[in-house]
Structure formats: C-alpha cells, structure tokens
Amino acid sequence: MHELLRAARELLPEVDELELVGTAVGLRPGTPDNAPLLGPIDARTIVATGHYRNGILLSPLTADLVVELLLSGTVPEEMAPFSPARFDRKRPT
Description:
This protein is α+β, with helices and mostly antiparallel strands. Helix content is 30%, strand content 12%. The chain has a domain at 28-87. It has helices at residues 2-11, 55-72, and strands spanning 37-42, 45-49. A two-stranded antiparallel ribbon has the order 1-2. The chain starts with a helix and ends in a 21-residue tail after the last helix.
C-alpha cells in the first residue's frame, strides 16, 4: 500500500492531504450470498469458485461433486443449491 501511495504522491502531491479510510484485497473470492458457485455455466464450462474463507476446507467435497458431475453428466443433488444460475435472472435456478 505504501508503494502505491508513494507512486501516487509523485504524480499528484495532494494525495498527502487525503485520509486513507480503508483497503481491500479480494484474494478470497466470495459471492453476494456467501455461498460458493458450483456447477455448469454452459455446455462446456463448469465452475467451482466463491468459497471465500472456506475454500481449503470445502475443496475435497467440491472436487468430489465436480467429478460426479463430470462422470454422470447430471448435477449432484448436493451441488444444486449452489448453481451459478441463481444469480442469472434470465435462467431458472
């Protein structure tokens, strides 16, 4: 953060007068409802993301569900509530 502010100050010295009120990084992808995105988004793409802080804990279960989807061609019952379509108003969930 300091390096970014230092560079900004070189371009715009007035930055020194501003108050830094917060920062965010976003390295842990999350969703608006705090539930992961699991399942197909089209005929060729499956997503497994948005686990936020629990990714390391949920990765074995997520992997099992994705493998089941890939092998069977149908969305496992446990995966259905986390469908990416829940955020798409044009497609049913």
